[in-house]
What does this fold into?
Amino acid sequence: MNKDEQVNLEHSTVLLIDNNQQALDMLGSVIQGFGVREQIKLGSAVAAQKLLQDRPVDLIIIDCADPEMDSYAFTRWLRRETSAPLKYTPVILVTGHASQAKVQEGRDCGVSFVVVKPITPKVLLKRVMWLALDEREFIECPTYVGPDRRVRNYGPPMGEAGRRKGDLSAHIGIAKEANMDQSDIDALLKPQKVQL
It folds into this structure.
């Protein structure tokens, strides 16, 4: 993040969804540290669906492994079954298992960014800043609804090191595939214009 770039989050409403209460509380503390005054914490994606029918939010951060509706199903619902402007709400998927298959599933269901646990305030703030400055078009077609995925992969911002390999969330279990490094995830999702 450039020292000259500033985003005021004081008047933003952030919806935090995590079925693990401790993780939800930690995420809330991080978001509060960014200056966000209004945050809504929910323990399930189903509860978030109900809430979003009555009120808009500016950002959604989700890590939900609930069998009734997980993060991916929630994002598909948000992108495909809601109307504007709700469907355009940025979504950051936080996950303890960052296998390439899971990152691609997140990208393909329409998340704006994927952040691997354990999160750090610095990494999360950079993703929020990227979203604030994001110029990607929103694509709506029969097979995909979400931010434009046609990107070139250049990795994290200049001067930034990648994240640790092998970090897993204790409450989810053992990953079925190797976790991707945060720099690899960023490379899959970083917006860059391409020639068509």
